[in-house]
Design brief:
Strand content: under 5%
Largest sheet: none
Structural class: mainly alpha
Length: about 70
């Protein structure tokens, strides 16, 4: 993830510095925000699924017999 964020930041800065595109830096910031939110949601999905499995084990069906 750090590589993607660094690359997007570098592209935005280079476009701003070389071509004078002042809008490239804010677009890069928005892209970084989208990537960060996507990466941050993935661990939470695992937490939600794990919590559901634990709750099923505690309150759900009877334990399985070996």
């Amino acid at each position: 993830m750090c590589t993607y964020l660094s690359a997007v930041l570098l592209v935005g800065l280079v476009l701003n510095a070389t071509l004078g595109w002042s809008w490239a830096d804010p677009i890069a910031a928005l892209a970084i925000a989208v990537i960060a939110v996507k990466e941050g949601r993935e661990p939470w999905q695992g937490v939600i699924q794990t919590g559901a499995v634990l709750m099923d084990g505690i309150f759900g069906a009877a334990p399985r017999q070996p």
